[in-house]
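user: At home tonight, take the chain set out below, taking as long as you need, and be ready to discuss the fold:
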Amino acid sequence: MQHSPCRNDQTQYYYEDEIDLKEIFRTLIDNKKLILAITVGCVLLAILYIVISTPLYEIKMQLKPGLNGWSKPDIVSWLKEKQYVNLFPDPDEDTLAMLKTLTYKDDRKASMVTLSLYWHDPKDGKAFMSEFTTRWKNYYLEKFPDENIVLAKNSLKRKIDELEQKLKKINEIDITQLENRITEKLKLIDLKKDNIETIKSEIEKQKALLKYFEETAENVMMNTRALI
């Protein structure tokens, strides 16, 4: 009898530690509007962020050392000091923003230096990188003129001159003569179309005549059978 109160106290202790699921569900139901409002708000904020936020694209370019007077440390030092800003003396707002996002990676194992640009429009980013490359090459040629590059440039200029001469000869062709030839070809095509239409009409007539003969022959056969 002396141990009974202890067991009752222990049982009461266990009941106090148990989780009342009914009370939890009742609490959730009572606050369902608040929970729903918070959930909807979070979803709307996520959708708004997705719509408003602009994705950034990474455009990469590699600067290759090895030319006379321009080694890899020279390129790294040039990029580290941000001397490339001087390539664009009068930049607009987009160009200035692109220059600020430029980063470079100097991998000791690689022979080239990787230049990266993060921009929201990949087409504009690639155009900027192309312009950057052109300006960098011109800057290099002015500072370190290389004989092979100069020879290649002269060869390219000769090829351009040859192409311009060919285009000039093409422009000298009598346009009126070409137009007359095209007109003659078109007339021949029209004549062939007319002949085709005529042939189609004759075929339809022949089909109709053949059908008439077939019907006449069938009628004659039927009358002959009736007489017999």
